[in-house]
Automatic annotation (TrEMBL):
Active-site residue list: 92 (proton donor)
Record bears the keyword Lyase: yes
EC main group: lyase
Protein name: Orotidine 5'-phosphate decarboxylase
PANTHER family: OROTIDINE 5'-PHOSPHATE DECARBOXYLASE
Organism lineage: Archaea, Methanobacteriati, Methanobacteriota, Stenosarchaea group, Halobacteria
E.C. code: 4.1.1.23
Pfam families: OMPdecase
InterPro entries: Aldolase_TIM, OMPdecase_AS, OMPdecase_type-2, OMPdeCOase_dom, RibuloseP-bd_barrel
Length: 265
């Protein structure tokens, strides 16, 4: 099934647009998880606690880029799939075509990926040609430095992030979404006006303090889109050293975010 059809079905089943970010910072994994692959043990328990509320899981590749990390990622992806939840790998890839073809092979394992458009259309072609997968193109990111380049005017009164959004819409064969941060609600609204049909991945609610209402109001296209929180969910139990209470807190955080976002859907 095409990714955005699968996502639409999952959003309906879970009654949720929450993307749970799986960013298992080794420095923050609790001491009681000391098995062979602590990141996998951590993610498994997070998934057990949150899957009812998850429209998707979004592991960020930065937290898995070592031999044990890739094993932990594979286990995590298989486990999420076993719970019926799609997986979006946040890898922000972007490289010359020959290299991009290798990067794109990860779409045999995960369902969707984030990509960086800075190298231009040919660098994204190996991803875009996967009509079964979801390809989320960075348009307006959530970090303060997003203004450095993305907000530059590029002619015709357009900002670079707006131009990227329009080009991405032209590239889409029903398989493209955009990444637009919740920390920039005006930009979020501007992109939605330009690009009515693409689903957005909206990160930046939770730990980064972004605008949840704007994320839902502008992030969804025909009800489909994702609002991500990572640290705000997975480390919600950090105050406790008791294992079941720790992961119950993650489940509660995911449920609370789902309810809050659903108020605006
Ligand atoms: O592509 C992303 O997911 C992303 C884009 C962006 O503009 N801002 C952003 O925070 N992210 C990612 O979303 C996650 C946010 O994590 P929290 O701030 O802990 O919720 C991290 O994995 C970021 O790398």
């Amino acid at each position: 099934m095409a990714f955005f059809d699968e996502l639409a079905a999952r959003i309906e089943t879970a009654d949720s647009v929450v993307s749970v970010g799986l960013d298992p910072d080794p420095d923050r994994i609790p001491d009681f998880l000391d098995g062979d692959l602590p990141r996998w043990g951590f993610n498994r328990r997070v998934i057990d606690a949150t899957h009812e509320h998850a429209a998707c899981y979004k592991p960020n590749a930065a937290f898995y880029e070592d031999p044990d990390g890739w094993r932990a990622l594979e286990e995590t992806v298989a486990y999420a799939h076993g719970k019926g939840v799609p997986v979006l790998l946040d890898a922000k890839r972007g490289d010359i075509g020959n290299t991009a073809r290798q990067y794109a092979s990860v779409l045999d394992t995960v369902d969707a990926i984030t990509v960086n458009p800075y190298l231009g259309e040919d660098s994204l072609q190996p991803f875009l040609s996967r009509s079964d997968a979801g390809v989320f193109v960075l348009a307006r990111t959530s970090n303060p430095g997003a203004r450095d380049f993305q907000n530059l005017e590029v002619g015709n009164d357009k900002r670079l992030y707006e131009y990227v959004a329009q080009r991405a819409a032209e590239w889409s064969d029903g398989n493209v979404g955009l990444v637009v941060g919740a920390t920039a609600p005006e930009e979020l609204e501007a992109v939605r006006e330009l690009v009515p049909d693409l689903p957005f991945l909206v990160p930046g609610v939770g730990a980064q303090g972004g605008d949840a209402e704007a994320a839902v109001e502008h992030g969804l296209a025909d009800g489909v889109g994702l609002v991500n929180s990572s640290r705000g969910i997975i480390f919600a139990g950090e105050e406790t050293s008791e294992a079941s209470a720790y992961f119950d807190a993650a489940g509660d955080a995911a449920r609370r975010l789902k309810r809050r976002l659903n108020e605006y859907r």
